Amino acid sequence: MTTIPVHVGVVDVLVLRHSAKGWGALALRRAPDTRCPGSWEMVHGKVEPGETLEAAARRELREETGLVAERLLSVTMHPFYLVPRGTVQLAAVFAAIVPPAAAVGLGAEHDRHAWLTISQARRRFSWPHERRILDDARLLLAQPNLWDVLEVPATDPRGDAAR
């Protein structure tokens, strides 16, 4: 039997904003000179050495969109096989709630963005797991009585200030 390493080294961040019409999700299109060019996705990124998952989510959100989360919720963990490294990765998945009028400033990895309804985002996202994440997040957002165990505090319990 072959042993394959499992590594928690990635974060996924579903960016949401609330409006009178309900929740909107941010979709980002990959730039032509990056991996998976032209695909639509949520924020993704690697966890840096010594960085908490929460800090990585906030940093990736800022780097890829210029946005800062008003609230950050833990949604799920997503396993996948990373072919180039030959490892099973676990991505910590977060929902970042941003102000309705916040302006998106794209990083180099993406060339377009769109604010979409949840239904539109389900159709636009390229990765099937992102569609499932949308469904999970929508269910959790409808139950604020669960947020006490899902919401990441503004100050990490390990003493790191949220950035």
Overall strand count = 7
Oligomeric form of this entry? Answer: single chain
Mean pLDDT: 91
Radius of gyration: 15 Å
Structural class: alpha+beta
The unreliable regions are 157-163
N-C termini distance: 43 Å
Note the total helix count: 4
Helix % is 10-25%
Series of H and E elements: EEEEHEEEHHH
What would you note in describing this structure?
The protein is of the alpha+beta class and 163 residues long. Helix content is 23%, strand content 37%. The protein is built from 4 helices and 7 strands. It has helices at residues 53-65, 118-124, 128-141, 147-150; strands at residues 6-19, 22-30, 40-41, 43-46, 71-82, 87-97, 110-117. Strands 1, 2, 3, 4, 5, 6 and 7 form a 7-stranded mixed β-sheet that branches. A hairpin with a 4-residue loop joins β5 (71-82) and β6 (87-97). α2 (118-124) runs antiparallel to α3. The longest helix has 14 residues, at 128-141. It starts with 5 loop residues before the first strand and ends in a 13-residue tail after the last helix. Mean pLDDT is 91; it is low at 157-163.
List the defining traits of the structure above:
163 residues, alpha+beta, 37% strand
Give the SSE layout:
Elements: E1 6-19, E2 22-30, E3 40-41, E4 43-46, H1 53-65, E5 71-82, E6 87-97, E7 110-117, H2 118-124, H3 128-141, H4 147-150
Parallel strand pairs: 1-6
Antiparallel strand pairs: 1-2, 1-4, 2-3, 2-7, 5-6
Helix pairs in contact: 2-3
